[in-house]
Amino acid sequence: MIVEIGHFALALALGVAVVQALVPLWGVARHDKVLAGVGPAAAVTCFLLVALSFAALVFSYVRSDFSVENVVANSHSTQPLIYKFTSVWGNHEGSMLLWVLILTLFGALVALSRRSLPVRLRAGTLAAQGLVTVAFLAFTLLTSNPFRRMVPAPADGQDLNPILQDLGLAIHPPLLYVGYVGFSITYAFAVAALIDGRIDAVWARAVRPWTLLAWVFLTLGIAMGSYWAYYELGWGGWWFWDPVENASLMPWLAGTALIHSTVVMEKRDALKVWTILLAILTFSLSLLGTFIVRSGVLTSVHSFATDPQRGLFILGILIIFVGGSLALFAWRAPLLRQGGLFAPVSREGALVVNNVFIATACATVFVGTLYPLLLEMVTGDKISVGPPFFNATFVPLFVPLLLILPLGQSLAWKRGDLLGAAQRNAAAFGIGIVVALGTIALTRGGPVVAPLGIGLGVFLVAAAFFDLGERIFRRASGWPAMFSRAKGLPRSAWGAAFAHAGVGLSVIGIAAQAWSTEAIGVLKPGERITSGRYTVVLESMLPRSGPNFRAEVARFQLFADNRELGVMEAAKRVYTARAMPTTEAGIRSHGLSQAYVSLGEPEGNGSIAVRLYDKPLILLIWIGSIVMSFGGALALTDRRFRLAAPKRAAPAGAAALPAE
In this structure, which of 333, 474, 561, 644 has its CB flanked by the most CB atoms within 10 Å? Predict the structure, then answer.
């Protein structure tokens, strides 16, 4: 009965979403406040219905209801409870329901933000969001119904894919989806503004917090996915330029550009056309990522099973929403009034350069990801575009962007002083140079470019906080005055400093991987292998059983520079239901560095293949991502985002809806 309630709630949500999509638009067109006001109620109702449906599916998994086909295919009675819960989104059907749940949640949040949005803008935004919801609810019900019954019901399920039975997968997909789906709100804002014909600083201030929120979660989701692949797949790397990894990186890059573009639009009422286009493209890239993951057109360890019907349906969604919004943009963008002017050397100019570099970097990832598919469609030839291409195209674009980032932060609005900005960053630049030269001296004969990367990261971290320090300490007469100045700084300024410092920390961690070492050997108990600073001695091999797997565990003694650090374990697991093996890497942190052990196949004479890595400063990659996200979250608490947007005039020739 619970299953039927969930299915019925999902179908009812589709009907409510249709109302949300059509009635507010009709109200805006007729200048009818009552009809325009239907949107918020419909959005909240739609969310509650989808939440009920999702709860019914969770109940089915937790209770191991094997009369539901989706539960049979992705769960097992012996699974730990946490993995029964995460199994809900560890498959295509359940993950689409989670996607729709987050989509409707964002619609409900916009509906409840009554004081911060003009009536017309909120009504148009909810209508556009409703159209997206209709499309994905229809997709879920018609091609990906998670409530389909199985008769007769089997005694047990087939188990969740073993590589997904990990706590990282309890966190990674929801974070990533909030990021992906969060950009649907910026897309809806853009479509609403184009329909309304009015795009100004009010619009920019309204859309900025939603963009920041999506960006923060997408950053965390990508970082969590990177760390999961690092320790779960046993490859020893943190980023593989996998097509599905690229599918999440592209909207992150576009979203980063959008954040900076909305700042210019809010401050100077400029870059209107570009900002609207970015809002459309960011969500379009999120939809493209959905298509890549769920259509099977590209092979990836992250992809769901191929289904041509689903792929065609998502392709249709992609064409309608991307093509439709770009057509609307082409029609309405030429009518937009030009905004404020600024000199090329100004903070606005620096943010424009920032956008150019990021957009170009995003385009290189787009080409490298989709070119193999297009080539195969046209010629039938199959090629693989891997790390050498992306490293040769993406990195040269990002390095100059990072070099000019602190300069842009130091320039004044409208007209800046480039020499003055350079002087203000001279101390941070000097520290970066000293660190780079020191790294070269300490690693004589090592990588040539990597020390420059270390220096660049240090420069970014120092410049971020030197900028804050200059604003806090200048003209201060004592600690009370400095504290007052620090407290008076907008939280968005603090957030930007932390976000930029987080980029610097990640750059240091990435550059340090040039000194990563690897050693491979076949060991028997008592034998050792050395890589870089670390040596491991295989103590023993012992069997171990879990609730739904058998494991062969290798126990190692870990030494660094002839000093014992303790014990670490790595394992090869076989999950009984699917008879599928997985590798569990052994990882031991030593400061910000890690020793990493991965097992190969056991030999017949009692020995086993062992791969040992020395990963210097690798934790900085993910610490930097967390600091970046913290900066974005801190900026979200800026009081300006909590203030009601000022009233704006209706477009010429149109009667304004009454204010609430």
Answer: 333
